[in-house]
Amino acid sequence: MNPEDLSLLVTRQMPFGKYQGRLIADLPGHYLGWFARSGFPKGELGRLLALMHEIDHNGLNALLEPLRKNARR
């Protein structure tokens, strides 16, 4: 994992689908789980979705809060 990927989770928006425009860090767990079962997209988006799935699945979402605060500045 690239450490910069954590910052991207709180700044990148989902580019398509039901949750288009929502930050990747704000995607619901069931949606991330669906990607985990069906297959993540190729490239950066897939890498970020897989990372967010791991964070969400392990209950580590609070780790992103400091990054959210920095992103708002």
From TrEMBL:
<dbReference type="InterPro" id="IPR024530">
    <property type="entry name" value="QSregVF_b"/>
</dbReference>
<dbReference type="Pfam" id="PF12843">
    <property type="entry name" value="QSregVF_b"/>
</dbReference>
<protein>
    <submittedName>
        <fullName>Cytoplasmic protein</fullName>
    </submittedName>
</protein>
